Amino acid sequence: MGSKINENPVFKIAFGAVLVSHSAFTVAAPDIVVDGRIRPAAVVGITGSEAFIRGEDHGVKSGSNLFFSFQKFNLNAPTDKATFSCSNGFCGASAGSIQNVISRINSFGNQGLSTINGEIAFAGTNLSAANLWLFNPQGVVIGSGAVINVPGAFHVGNATQLDFPGAGNFDLATTDVSSLTVAPGGFGFVGVDPDGAGATGTINPSNGVSLNGGTITTFNGPIEVNATTVIANGSTLNASTGSISISGTNLVVQDGSTTTLNSTGNLQIQESSTNDLVMNAGSGSATLTSAAGVKTLTSNADITVSHGTFRGNLVSTSGNLTTMIAGVDGNVEATVGDLSLDGIVTGSAVAGNNLTLFGGSVEGGATAGQDLVNSGTITGNAEALSGSLTNISNATITGDATAGTTLDNSGTISGKATANHQTSSEVGGSLTSGTSLINRTTGVIGNGAESENNTDIDNQGQITGTATSSNDLSNSGSITGNAVAFRD
Asked: For residues 404 and 420, what is the distance between their CA atoms, to the nearest angstrom?
């Protein structure tokens, strides 16, 4: 799974130690070896603790992409540095000549995962707008001393290939990149035979991406974490002008940790399997924590949770909140935006604007600032403060249902149904006449129905309890109890 990312951001990233433990670094210089798979191997020059990776010596240019293929890529100490550059004659002299620097670590020869505990930098005008893509199927360890300082976006994963829409892919067996002239679309995680001859066998992604105590900061673009396993254990991710995307097969926020996500764009947390998406959240601006106390993920932008279960509260203070075939073990709130739910919410659901329950259940009541549409089960009360409330056929509200304007019921409301309701901030309901409460032929209301402020009731189904209309009452169904119609 890979998502299309803005190709022209500028940012600097400082990473902290990851979960994979490398407690001692004994190598005193960068350990970087070109594998010779896409061009004849040349030794990477090292001066002191700095490795110089040159496109004209070690890479292949294809369109605005610059490809490298390594057997090993390790910066073992905080003083280690890897500098990417490319001569004007090989890559062009203008800014933006190279848009993507793509680095594959083909570690099938038992080279293992890559450790980045030093600095990665770009040099030269032709790399001044470039993004860095770095993938090793056996994992990438980003240590406490790592500083990734590149002018564009940074993508890292334990992928086996990088996909190029309409052009093919750059996988572990690729030796010819001449057709890969378009921008990369995202990582792929399929099994690949790295030598192309079956001698080595199939390589599948292993390990994953773990963030433990460090900081990722983007000054002008997104942050994307994409791996088979993502483990967050106390990092801070800051996307000053972009989005944050965390995706994988298994996503876990470590117990006792606080991971903070600050983004001016969308925050997307997505799991691509049916495994639990376990994120125990704490308070703050887009903060995840599993420490004791209030567990809340708060974002000032959109939040999307896809598949699995989010353990904690979700709050979007300025955007929309969407769950897709996902559960939330806590409360959900879109303070000013829309709330769209498909799954089980064990707590309450609150939307500043519209609230839609496509399926599943909300077990702690639901409130919408405007319209509320229920296609599942709401345990407790449901209220549309200033808009309409629609309870479709086979949908259930176990408590009272209250609408600021029209209430249209085709399902079951166990409590009282009230339409065109006057709130404390209103002189009266928003409707001045007409039918505000419709109980259709399949509709069941269990504890009375009322239309307020000069509006009508049209009952075609079943009402148990008193039906009170502030204007006209039309009944073609059944009312077990009193029926009252009057004009104010």
From this structure: 5
